[in-house]
Design a protein that fits this description.
The chain has a domain of 60 residues. β3 and β4 form a beta hairpin. The chain is built from 2 helices and 5 strands; from the N terminus they run ββαβββα.
C-alpha cells in the first residue's frame, strides 16, 4: 500500500496476541549479536516464576527500543505525573536466587 509516494507497512495483530501477557519481572541478557528479553510473571507465595514471553533482537533494535521507551515514559509522566519507583527506597524486593535460565 502506498500513500503520498511512500510505502505503508501493514501490521496484523492476531486476537491471541492482542490479549497480551502480564509480566512483573523482566530479565535481559545479551551477546555480541543479540539481546534476549524474558518477560516473567512471578506471583506472591509461589516458588517458581514463569517466562511468559521471550523477545530476541539485534543490539541496534534494542537501542531503538530503549529510546522509544524513554520517549513514551516522558510522555506518560507529562500527562499523568511522575512514576514513583516503589522498590527503590526501603521497599522489599525478594532476591532472585538459584536462577537457571538460558538465553
Amino acid at each position: 500500500m502506498e500513500q503520498n509516494g511512500q510505502k505503508q507497512l501493514q501490521i496484523e495483530l492476531k486476537e491471541e496476541t492482542a490479549q497480551g501477557v502480564y509480566s512483573n519481572l523482566a530479565m535481559i541478557t545479551h551477546s555480541s549479536s543479540e539481546f534476549v528479553m524474558d518477560f516473567i510473571s512471578i506471583l506472591p507465595g509461589m516458588a517458581k516464576a514463569q517466562v511468559k514471553s521471550r523477545v530476541i533482537m539485534s543490539p541496534e533494535h534494542a537501542k531503538r527500543l530503549l529510546g522509544a521507551l524513554q520517549d513514551n515514559v516522558a510522555k506518560y509522566e507529562n500527562s499523568f505525573g511522575k512514576i514513583e519507583m516503589k522498590g527503590q527506597k526501603g521497599t522489599y524486593m525478594p532476591p532472585i536466587t538459584d536462577f537457571h535460565g538460558e538465553a
